[in-house]
Amino acid sequence: MKEAIDHLVERLGGLAPRVALVLGSGLGGLVNEVEKPVRISYADLPGFPVSGVTGHAGEVVAGHFAGVPVLMLAGRAHYYEHGNAAAMRPVIEALAGIGITHLLLTNAAGSVDADMLPGSVMLIEDHINFSGTNPLFGEPSDRRFVGMTGAYDPGMRAALQRAAATADITLHRGVYMWFSGPSFETPAEIRMVRVLGANAVGMSTVPEVILARFFGLKVAACSVITNLAAGMTGAELSHEETKDMAPIGGARLATVLKTMFREGFLDE
Hints:
Shape: globular
Largest sheet: 5 strands, mixed, barrel
Helix content: 25-40%
Low-confidence stretches: none
CATH topology: Rossmann fold
Structural class: alpha/beta
Number of helices: 7
Number of strands: 9
Strand content: 15-25%
CATH class: Alpha Beta
CATH architecture: 3-Layer(aba) Sandwich
Strand order of the largest sheet: 5-8-7-6-9
CATH superfamily: Nucleoside phosphorylase domain
Number of domains: 1
Oligomer: single chain
């Protein structure tokens, strides 16, 4: 990763962000609010994966957001694209290598709770890995035994909750369950999800959380709710629904993020 890290440092030109954001569906437009942006295509960074999912641009955008130096990752690689749970490992490793200490992840997810409707935002407090895989498969060192008890940093979660309250935006809290995808869950699987204690389901984020903890980063994550899960409405699910609904919750989450950075809640 040295070549990718060196290229990032050179392109950043002295900018030294400590916070990075991975922008999921509905949040891609946030890069347009970065002041004096430095844009770097994933294709120009050795080891960075190129996403084949619509709505995931595949570029690094760095600059000041709400007055704070940040680095945004517009797009991610998903396990279902490559069959590789560690597809984002080079990205997370490079972030750690340039001095990022806090990683904020966002995604689009389906709600399992009838009162958490499309357009809502959920703060992830914990997750269930139901994929049967792990991005640390094959890691030869004992560092692979990563503790996940406090995977979602309490301080970062408190900052997001305070920002949501300040902006008068409801921020639901719950457990996210990772399915491998790309097919959506069945109604029977969603009934199982409820029994196991999850509140939302999706096809990303968990590998990045595991990798971030492996590389020593503090992590927080939020889901933009784009649909009620399979069997809850009787309608079939589709990626078009995800793309159509993501901007609604995305706008709410963007307001929370801007408030958090502008008010300095993350530094408290």
